[in-house]
Amino acid sequence: MAERRRRKRLNGRLSMLRSIVPKISNMDRTSILADTIDYTKELIEKINNLQQEMELGPNQLSLMSIFENEKPIEMFLRNSPKFNVERRNMDTIVEINCAGKSSLLLSTLATLDSSGLEPQQCVISCFNDFAMHASCSEEMDQRGLANPEEIKQALFRNAGYAGKCL
């Protein structure tokens, strides 16, 4: 019984590591630990670079050197906002990935509600950025169903982005 509890705790912690570390090559325990160690070393190196630049002073500060090993397209794709709304049968699927800000979850749910959508299942992550995957149903008292593109634009504006979402 004690061994079973120990394994359950270990598997839970490995699952947490797998969800936090961005680059996991394989799902076995050894790979998860090795990739976590590599990621931790990268973070320590970035912290050291930041500390060195802070010692240089504000006139010589160059934050882009922290990301010198990052590929620009990967940084852009990782940080660019993504909003997707599509109808499937009787449900509407909403997917959002964008920069996090306070009260974004509440305002997003209010936007869905004002669009006549009621979330049935929702997976939300606010770890680094804001991510939401929701399956919504249309409210019965809603006369005209909102266009998915209109919902997408409303969510985009709600998240604090100006202009139109592509």
Automatic annotation (TrEMBL):
GO terms for molecular function: DNA-binding transcription factor activity; protein dimerization activity; sequence-specific DNA binding. Residues 1-43 form the BHLH domain. It holds the Pfam family bHLH-TF_ACT-like_plant. PROSITE patterns: BHLH. The keyword Nuclease does not apply. GO terms for cellular component: nucleus. It is found in: Nucleus. The keyword Transcription applies. SMART domains: HLH (SM00353). Signal peptide: none annotated. Keywords: Nucleus, Transcription, Transcription regulation. Its main location: nucleus. It comes from the Eukaryota. PANTHER family: TRANSCRIPTION FACTOR BHLH93-LIKE, TRANSCRIPTION FACTOR SCREAM2-RELATED. This is Transcription factor bHLH93. It comes from Capsicum baccatum.
